[in-house]
Every structure is written in structure tokens, then in C-alpha cells.
Amino acid sequence: MSTTTTNYGFTLPAINSATDADAWGTQLNGNWTSMDSLLLTATNKVHSAKTSNTTIDSTYKNKLIQCDASGGAFTLTLNAASALGDGFTFAVKKTDSSVNAVTITPNGGDTIDGASTDSISAQYTTKIYVSDGTNWNVYSSNNTVTPSVKTVKKQVFTSNGTYTPSSGMLYCIIEAIGGGGGGGGSATNGYGAAGGGAGGYCKIVASSGTVGASQAVTIGSAGTAGAIGAKGGNGGNTTFGSILTANGGTGGTFAPTAAAFLATGGVGGTASGGDINITGQTGGGYYADAVNYAGVGGSSIFGTGGLGLTGWTPATGFTANGNAGNGYGAGGSGAFNSNSGTGKTGGAGTGGIIIITEYCSQ
Fold first, then answer.
1. Between residues 16 and 265, which one has the greater pLDDT?
2. Average of pLDDT values for 65-94?
């Protein structure tokens, strides 16, 4: 009677069996068909590209798994090294240029070179994983192409949004400025008011790994102009995720009466998280003297403060609203009026900004 082979179950007709005499052709044809399929599988070393979480089982033995993580990071989860067996081998190659990583995670307490996981984040990096029957070993790791800068790109934010790195971004320079404070408004029958402080400034060189897939961007608002006899509004804070913070400048104060003679400028905003962190310029104060000056707005790296007003003397008198800041992160100037004049409004500050200069491999 017929028997079957141990590994693949090929049918072996019985020798010198009258009942199997006519079965040789059919059985041989079936065996050859099975062997043809097995040979095709054995010689096909490349699995189709993976773009999402995948379990690596026995069908991936001796295969190259090409991974495209441009749509998001994902994980290859391995079956137990003991189940797949000593010598089980497969390779993983990351084909895309995004910052998203492909993570290789063993089963249970298995490890990869002693670690609980392994990952591939650089384009064209290939790693070969081999089971020793208990854990996994990285046989080789080859980055066939070292990414180099080919293009320089720029993204600018003047309103809230989300920063998504351009394709192939290797590293970038991020600059952030907070909103400028508004100038104070002068009181009726008072003299003058002070300028608003400039927003803080910070700058960092960040890798694609630090930035990740995206970062929330918040742009600090402009400090509002101080109403008559009121302090100027504070500038808003500018943030780049949790990486950078550039705080807004505070609004300028005002002299409540002609006899007060003094108003202090708004304080510049602080900054943190950068390789460089600079506190914004303080707004100019107001002080009554033989010739009086309304406080100038604080200037930022990307903006100039509102021009301070001058010209009042006991003989001439002078009344004017404050001037707004220019550019980004600058303070507005304070208002000015004679001791018998109607109060005036201050100048508004200007909003913050984030500038991202990207160095990309494509």
C-alpha cells in the first residue's frame, strides 16, 4: 500500500503492488506539482512590503521583509524563538525616508542581543535576525546609504498649527519668538505711558528623531494696545510642542496722574528649551522732566518696537497715541499727552513667529 514522506507528505506508491500499478503516474504528477510549489516558495526570498503591524511566523523563514513606514511607525512581532527553532533567519529592510521607526519585538521574555526590542529608523538599513532557539541575535546591520543633505526647505508659522517634517528631513533649526506686549495708554490729565516688552527668543538644532512625526505649534498673540489710563496687554506665549517655549512680553504701564511722573516699561518674555534662550528687551519707561518721552516698545530679533513719542514741554504741550510694533515679537510704545490733555491709547505689540529651516535628504 502507499506511504507518505515525513516532511511534506509526498505519496510513495508501494513497490510491486498490483493495486498501485496504475497509480504511479497520478501520484508522481501530484508529487512534482507539490515540489514545484515548494521550490518557488523556497527561492522567493522577498515578502511584499509591509506598512503596518505584522506577526513574523514560520512563513517568513529566510525571507527579506521590506518595510515602508511612511504612513506611520509600526511593529513586527516575532513568534517565540523556541517555536521557530534554532537557526530560523529573516531580514528586515526599511525602504522609506520618513522619521518613523520599524520596531522588532520578540515574544514574551525573548530578547534581541539582550534587549527587549530592536528598531530600524534610517532609510535602506537592513538587519538580519537569527534565532538560537531561545533568543534572537542580530547577525549583521548594514546601512547601505548614508543620508546626506540635498535640499534646504523652510516652514514658517504665524498662527497655530501642526508642524510635519518635510520628506527626508534629517535635522532642522527651529527659531521661536513670543508675542510683544502692548504699550500703556495715558491717563486723562496725566502725562505718558511706557512701552511693552518684546517676546522671548529661542533657537535649537534638532534631529528628525527629536522632532518625531509632528509637533503642535502655538503662536503667541500680540499684546493689545492699552486703553486710556490702562496697562497694555501681555503678549502670548509661543511653543513648539514641549521642546521650545518663548514667552510673551508684558504690557507697559501708565502714569496715573500728572504728578506721578513715572511709568515702567513691560518686561521682556523669557525663553527655554533652546540651544540659545534670550529674554526679550524691556519696553522703555516714561519719566516726566523738562522734555517728556513716552516709552518705546521693546525690540525683538525679528521686529522693532513702536517708536516712543517725544516733544512735550511746559510751553508747547503734546498729545498722541502710541505706535504699534513692527515685525514679530515687538512691543508697542506708550501713549503721551500733556497734563491737561485727554488720555490716549498705547500702541499694540506684534505676534510671535516660528521659523523652521529643514535640511533634507531629498
1. 265
2. 93
- The length of the chain is 362
Residue identified by cell 497734563 is: 339
pLDDT of residue 336: 83
Q: What is the pTM of this model?
A: 0.62
pLDDT of residue 147: 65
Pair 221, 269: CB distance under 8 Å? no
Confidence of residue 255 (pLDDT cuts 50, 70, 90): confident
Burial class (CB in 10 A: 0-12, 13-18, 19+), 36: exposed
Secondary structure E strands in 38-115: 46-50, 54-56, 64-67, 74-78, 89-94, 102-105
- Contact partners, residue 70, CB within 8 Å, separation at least 6: 96, 97, 98, 100
CA distances for 250 relative to 48, 234, 278, 283, 298, angstroms:
58, 4, 15, 9, 10
- At residue 264, the 3 state secondary structure works out as coil
Distances (CA, A) of 173 to 101, 205, 316, 355, 362: 22, 5, 52, 8, 17
